[in-house]
Amino acid sequence: xxxxxxxxxxxxxxxxxxxxxxxxxxxxxxxxxxxxxxxxxxxxxxxxxxxxxxxxxxxxxxxxxxxxxxxxxxxxxxxxxxxxxxxxxxxxxxxxxxxxxxxxxxxxxxxxxxxxxxxxxxxxxxxxxxxxxxxxxxxxxxxxxxxxxxxxxxxxxxxxxxxxxxxxxxxxxxxxxxxxxxxxxxxxxxxxxxxxxxxxxxxxxxxxxxxxxxxxxxxxxxxxxxxxxxxxxxxxxxxxxxxxxxxxxxxxxxxxxxxxxxxxxxxxxxxxxxxxxxxxxxxxxxxxxxxxxxxxxxxxxxxxxxxxxxxxxxxxxxxxxxxxxxxxxxxxxxxxxxxxxxxxxxxxxxxxxxxxxxxxxxxxxxxxxxxxxxxxxxxxxxxxxxxxxxxxxxxxxxxxxxxxxxxxxxxxxxxxxx
Amino acid sequence: xxxxxxxxxxxxxxxxxxxxxxxxxxxxxxxxxxxxxxxxxxxxxxxxxxxxxxxxxxxxxxxxxxxxxxxxxxxxxxxxxxxxxxxxxxxxxxxxxxxxxxxxxxxxxxxxxxxxxxxxxxxxxxxxxxxxxxxxxxxxxxxxxxxxxxxxxxxxxxxxxxxxxxxxxxxxxxxxxxxxxxxxxxxxxxxxxxxxxxxxxxxxxxxxxxxxxxxxxxxxxxxxxxxxxxxxxxxxxxxxxxxxxxxxxxxxxxxxxxx
Lengths: 418, 259
What we know:
The structure holds two protein chains of two kinds.
Chain A: E1 8-20, H1 26-35, E2 43-56, E3 61-65, H2 72-79, E4 87-92, E5 96-99, H3 112-122, H4 127-141, H5 156-169, E6 174-178, H6 186-201, E7 205-209, H7 213-219, E8 222-227, E9 230-235, H8 237-254, E10 274-276, E11 281-289, E12 298-300, E13 305-318, E14 321-328, E15 333-335, E16 348-359, E17 367-376, E18 383-396
Parallel strand pairs in A: 3-7, 3-8, 5-6, 6-7, 12-18
Antiparallel strand pairs in A: 1-2, 1-4, 8-9, 10-18, 11-13, 13-16, 14-15, 14-17, 17-18
Helix pairs in contact in A: 3-4, 3-5, 4-5
Chain B: H1 2-10, H2 13-28, H3 36-56, H4 64-85, H5 93-98, H6 105-120, H7 122-131, H8 142-167, H9 170-185, H10 200-203, H11 207-219, H12 227-251, H13 255-258
Helix pairs in contact in B: 2-6, 3-4, 4-6, 4-8, 4-9, 4-11, 6-8, 8-11, 8-12, 11-12
């Protein structure tokens, strides 16, 4: 390979998704249509990327930013060859490793050791390469004492840590990272950032997709801003991030709705969180509503913030407790109230219904926030349905509140007392 | 192009090995008899069929157990590879959506697992032959050839059904019915001679008849199959594999989004 050639060259790439209304009735619909003499499937199209071109230079760390549905994750999947473009070409020079799904392919019955070998082989590594890296992987994960236990005995944190250690300790030329820095405790996250910096210094090319703008600013040399499937800005992190902020303000005031895929597609609404619970009651959806009761995911500091949680109880549930939590994009737990704490006792529920959580003057400062919604039994021991960090909303600057630093604006005032 | 394709899969040979080993390990984890089940299973099946057909329905065939074994074991290989393989992509949606690797690896490893089980059953077959005083002869070496092309044949079919099942989930259910039908249309538990001379030709429209015929000639009669049969087996194996692989190659481009 020519040393001057870019690590990744993307030329006029477009990608279209087909959205199916109902997977199960595909064949039925097709047969009926064939009988009528038509060849078609029950679907509509959605362009996730339109005519995107870029070069990613060797040894650079670049970031893709943009709102949900802007196409940044699609672009990353195209580079990693999980998806194929509908038009254009993608050329990658070097071995690629993708940190998209941690622990994909872990088998619960097998031990951590066996799973490390399988996981690394899924990423395309030979036995000899894994043998060489095995010690590093286990050390990095901090799971030395558990490596010969079946992974079904692991906590979800351990699971993710092991997956991350495998993906990051094998030695790619190009590392693709999608949102996974939001794993583990703070110490582990620091370790990961350190490792990425190490790879960066070793001259690896790193492509980074994240909502965590501060991490993007910290790590990246260049940033590409995507919007509705197009690349709209390419430049220094500060420039691209401020363009992104401008864009968020612009779209929120014009009330432009994004062409977000409603059904299926690759990025559902639970785009990064995890979900657990018995599902006797299920959370059907979470909607963020602005002062006019319109759905949005962009709020201003000081505005009214309302969340509606729709549920569906499959049987009669006595005294359910609804709770939410808000995290910063660095995963600081900001608040976690529930109905029981506020003495809102719901005797019993059955079927569909909703609860609302309202903050009259949202004290959160500009940034992106993760949202958790959950339903528990009255004792708080049994989870009916818990969606951890499964939604995201943004807060932008407002004229009303002048505070700038930190996460929240406390309802406070300054006084000069001599 | 074919060379490049084979290399892309060869690069992931360690993954294939791991998937096969994982399947075998998980399958026997926790069961007391473990691997013995692979041998016990065909033995028990043989007992059931023998009782049903020889003693209840009174089909008159010499050496019925071996007659049945020689065709039932290859059929089981085809049957289990296809019925497990059809969901090989859809069951791994998590992997397919999140990680790049040649998707061929998934159906391939299923076929290899079942091939392995098939080969294991020869540890039952050979002693059975000895018990019935039918020492395996020189023609046994031909089995390597037949098994190889059957594996290609099965691989081609598995490519097709696993890829189609991503697009249409009904394929899996359709296949179940089809395999039932296919089983009864193939001379596995009934002898070829049962068919009136007039219709004998039609039986060979079923590609698997050639395989059954060859296995029987070798195992039951210790004879070398007719050259025509051998040529057909080679052709069926190669054509099925090439068509299956080409279709899979084309269809896999949209797996990650269709799954």
